[in-house]
């Protein structure tokens, strides 16, 4: 959180930009994006016939492009957009990469934002581009792209064997693998999904299908010895090279670690598992009874359940608390420490813990208006749009980035004032 300490944490509200003003002609303005520190707001704007730019606060990028899309702020505050001028490139703060490609999509950032990557499609082949440098080998099919946390490595599921239409025999023999930094594993499988890096980005694990009926996890191309009826996305332990994955046996779901069952298959569903930051706890979203959803920690389900959905599970920085979103009868709420908030919303977004783990904040929507709620208490003002909240390094204040009446506002408020 140290990078946040340089931000302006003085309590108060100020208007950063009037969205109706820009130093270029604007025919229309697309979805707004706010910088992490709240100091900038940006959007793709149409400036003329077949001509697009990006307006940051009230200033347009030069030059203009035929199209710009997928505008995103990186964690370090740089603004990246995919731009077309015949061919495609990626512009960072208005500066394009030197290289151009047939098509680019799905921008990815390293954890600190220092590395920007995206996916490339060129002459019916696919791969990844990191900081303007594409994989040496592109593939007839690539998907499930991922960038390592440090941005130095990349991986994707790739097709390594040509397949004709209805070529079921080649398919059953295995035509898919994982390419790491553009180099495939030396083994193929019937299917592969969701490659994931370990903590130091030296290993990759993925779901695989050996045959039409046998599923397991492979690490660096080597499958677990055990097969299952089905598996979900693997996850490396944060401090060890062990891999945990939900697995299905005899119609029920449990959890396996390095192929060995650690949660007995007793659930109707188990997925989206997370280790606590230190790795001493393992939690997952589970369905303990048909049609009821909750969280389980080390295999033990919570008592608070929801009938529609549970999502966006988040561990606190100290690993002692856990929060998620729950949906019941079409309404959303937040639940943490096995207790639901009293308030219900039309929509909630991913919960955010304060650095000291004492508070939970979330962006919420009710009757078309947005605001921020902390520990179940709403900020006093509603907005036309707002972005996810950010706590100050000491957890005492919260940054609210919001749009109201056509103006983008940056607000810093005391957590104590919101929760009362």
Automatic annotation (TrEMBL):
InterPro entries xref list: 6-blade_b-propeller_TolB-like (IPR011042), WD40 (IPR011659)
Extent of the signal sequence: none
Top-rank taxon, per record: Bacteria
Matching Pfam families: PD40
NCBIfam families documented for this protein: TmcD_fam
Name the UniProt record assigns to this protein: WD40 repeat domain-containing protein
Organism in which the protein naturally occurs: Desulfomicrobium baculatum (strain DSM 4028 / VKM B-1378 / X)
Lineage of source species: Bacteria, Pseudomonadati, Thermodesulfobacteriota, Desulfovibrionia, Desulfovibrionales
């Amino acid at each position: 959180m140290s990078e946040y300490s340089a931000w302006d944490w003085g309590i108060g509200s100020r208007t950063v930009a009037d969205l109706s003003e820009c130093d270029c002609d604007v025919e229309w303005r697309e979805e707004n994006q706010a910088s992490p520190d709240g100091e900038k707001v940006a959007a793709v704007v149409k400036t003329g016939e077949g001509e697009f730019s990006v307006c940051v606060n009230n200033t347009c990028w030069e030059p203009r492009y035929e199209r710009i899309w997928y505008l995103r702020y990186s964690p370090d505050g740089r603004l990246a957009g995919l731009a077309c001028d015949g061919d495609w490139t990626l512009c960072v703060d208005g500066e394009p990469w030197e290289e151009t490609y047939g098509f680019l999509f799905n921008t990815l950032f390293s954890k600190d934002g220092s590395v920007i990557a995206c996916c490339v499609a060129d002459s019916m082949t696919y791969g990844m581009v990191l900081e303007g440098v594409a994989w040496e080998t592109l593939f007839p099919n690539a998907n499930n792209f991922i960038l390592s946390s440090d941005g130095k490595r990349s991986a994707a599921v790739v097709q390594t064997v040509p397949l004709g239409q209805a070529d079921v025999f080649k398919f059953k023999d295995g035509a898919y693998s994982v390419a790491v930094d553009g180099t495939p594993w030396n083994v193929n499988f019937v299917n592969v999904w969701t490659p994931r890096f370990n903590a130091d980005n030296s290993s990759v694990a993925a779901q695989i299908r050996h045959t039409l009926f046998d599923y397991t996890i492979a690490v660096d191309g080597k499958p677990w010895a055990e097969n299952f009826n089905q598996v979900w996305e693997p996850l490396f332990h944060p401090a060890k090279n062990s891999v945990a994955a939900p697995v299905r046996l005899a119609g029920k779901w449990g959890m396996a670690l390095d192929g060995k069952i650690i949660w007995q298959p007793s659930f109707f569903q188990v997925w989206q598992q997370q280790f606590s930051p230190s790795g001493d706890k393992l939690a997952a979203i589970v369905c303990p009874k048909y049609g009821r959803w909750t969280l389980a920690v080390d295999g033990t389900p919570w008592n608070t359940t929801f009938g529609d959905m549970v999502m966006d599970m988040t561990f606190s920085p100290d690993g002692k608390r856990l929060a998620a979103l729950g949906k019941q009868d079409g309404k959303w709420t937040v639940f943490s420490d096995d207790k639901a908030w009293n308030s219900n919303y039309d929509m909630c977004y991913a919960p955010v813990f304060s650095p000291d783990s004492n508070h939970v904040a979330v962006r919420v929507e009710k009757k078309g208006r947005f605001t921020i709620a902390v520990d179940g208490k709403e900020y006093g003002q509603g907005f036309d749009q707002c972005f996810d909240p950010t706590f100050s390094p000491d957890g005492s204040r919260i940054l609210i980035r919001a749009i109201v009446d056509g103006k983008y506002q940056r607000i810093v408020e005391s957590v104590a004032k919101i929760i009362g």
